[in-house]
Write a structure and sequence with these properties.
The protein is mainly beta. The protein has 1 helix and 12 strands; from the N terminus they run βαβββββββββββ.
Amino acid sequence: MIIDRLEHASLYLAVHPGVAAAFEYLRKTDLDRVEPGNHEIDGRRMYVMAQRYETKAREKGRCEAHRRYIDVQYVHRGVELFGYANLAELKPGSYDEAKDFLSLEGEGKGDFFRVGQGMFVILFPQDGHMPGLAILAPQPVRKFVVKVALEG
């Protein structure tokens, strides 16, 4: 997992070729004009999930991971609490192949940190994560999750 601000994205371009393309999309796109929903960037090799939601209480969050995609989660507006734990610390639940969504269990495991406007989190298959949590009270968030396929 990597967390930083978009203005420092150039430090991480060598992580994966698709990560560089994800940052290019986030920097060059007028994100205020992107409607919520899924939008292909490079077919299913790279697409963005444009999201608008209210953060939720920690007890309503669910821990997840992905096997086929790297997530580049970028908070465009708002702030949220974000949970993280290495997959080795968590118990795998069901896996939805079509959605590339692995449910995870591990009450009390991991760490939580604040992700504010202009910040991104890069998540790999070993990174269990619980995004979209309220810090003190629910608030609106505008987020872009760029999904980068591990294999072309």
